[in-house]
Amino acid sequence: MDELQLVRELGDETPLPDQAALAPARAAFLAGISGRGPVRLRKRRSRYALVGASAIGLAAAVAATITLMPAGQPATGGQAVATAPSQPSPSASSAEVKPVTDAVRLLGYAAETARADPTAPPRPDQFVYTRSTFAGGPAGGAGEREIWLSVDGTRDGLLKNHDSSTTRMAGCKDGQMDVFKDPEVVLGTEPCEPRPAYRSDLPTDVDGMLAYLDANASGEPGSVNARGKDVLGLIRESYLPPLARAALYEAAARVPGLSVVQDARDGAGRPGIGITWPTPPGSSSKATPVVIVFDPTTYELLGTNFDAIAAQAIVDQPGQRP
Amino acid sequence: MTPTDAEIIDRSRHEPNAFAAIFDRHAPHIQRYLARRLGPQVADDLVAETFLTAFDKRQRYDQARPDARPWLYGIATNLVGQHRRQEARRYQARSSDNAGQADAAEQDHADRVAAEVTARAMRSMLAGALGGLSDEDRDVLLLVAWEQLSYEEVAAALAIPVGTVRSRLHRARRKVRQALGGQNPTEVEELLNNG
């Protein structure tokens, strides 16, 4: 043993991030390249930051109102249907139409929708399949990616990009995972902890979820921007049990300073209602704001303004589509 | 068949979105490298910047290199260079971690706890030693020790001759050894494993 080995062990304390943790950076990267075009035109690049709504976005959010359907009621011909609610829920407290202008209420509806999800829990040997599309820019057309992540984190998953290139997502079996450059080139193994795509480990009540978010915060305590990234990391490409997902939305609603974006669109251009958060001090004025977008009538998660969740399902094998 | 990084980068000259595959292949290791040097939050911000910088430089990518990872490490290392003060603070913070622990060790005579404290002290000394290296020497040492790049890959990443990699690594190791001050490395190793 020598000093090189000692230095190495100091580095071992930092884990390899998973896809969920990298999702915000990936969205920022894709937004960055779509804004560039085939030839680099600007010398000065805008620094990446996840920031809140611009002044214009906020003004629009205040001025605009949307029509809210009672939860679970399908929209018919654009008219609100006054129906007596079958069970009490925050969105059904009144049959009258009302605008959703505050983030707490919007996230409350999203939590209700999540809680009502009848999907049965997956088996540990299954995979969470997510197909997402990201917005095209001047640089090229819209892209799509598909990912299969192991429910219990011990099996190898798969990532397919829009260009059909594939990446193996190493599972963690018996505390070891393959380290590779390409699917065919395995460099060796390294110690790991399984990262389940089905997050049955998460708390199902709002206080527990807040404690979890605090304990696993990626940024400084109290950083709204970091909290936004953490919440996004949990809901993209991993699958939360209905109660945990509801708790996450309710915990997110406790973040101070959230605002509603009425005319939001997800990365696939689908219209929705969005949540965004305040600009961290010192951000570049050119940084692109992130908006979490929900379906305006069902309050299901659609995605973000960078990318859209086109489909999500439980399947038996990596590569299998629902 | 899976295309090489060089093939993907070549294609991305005309089809920019193809570059997303480079992100998916290498972002986890680049993020971890940045997190090791600058902490997780800065790493999250800089990983996108690393790949955007790489994207901007893709026209000049050396097509003779099928694996893009050393090139990406070079770009990430440049970005670390713009955050030297942040990195220095990180080593400083880790090297002072130990200050409050000595008292605890004196009060608690359990051998195991003492060993843990010693291991922590050793980590602190190591962090201090890393902070004391020159930027050039530290870049080489950490690319070899943490990222397990070969000398040739470090040379490619930093655009320096292989001989320079060897001499910088030699000097960095000697300085770290000196900073650990006569501790028997084997003994230290055992403490670290136990701690």
Report on this structure:
The complex is a heterodimer of chains A (322) and B (195). By secondary structure, chain A is an alpha+beta fold. Chain A has one domain. Helix content of chain A is 25%, strand content 20%. Chain A contains seven helices and eleven strands. In chain A, the strands form three sheets. A five-stranded antiparallel sheet of chain A has the order 4-3-2-1-11, with no helix packed on it. Chain A has a four-stranded antiparallel sheet with strand order 7-8-9-10. In chain A, helix 5 crosses helix 7 and helix 6 packs antiparallel against helix 7. The longest helix of chain A is centred in the first third of the chain and has 16 residues. Chain B is mainly alpha-helical and 195 residues long. Chain B has two domains: 82 residues, Rna Polymerase Sigma Factor, Chain: A, CATH 1.10.1740; 101 residues, Winged helix-like DNA-binding domain superfamily/Winged helix DNA-binding domain (Arc Repressor Mutant, subunit A). In chain B, helix 2 crosses helix 3. Chain B is globular. The termini of chain B are far apart. Chains A and B meet through helix 1 and helix 2 of A and helix 2, helix 3, helix 7, helix 8 and helix 10 of B.
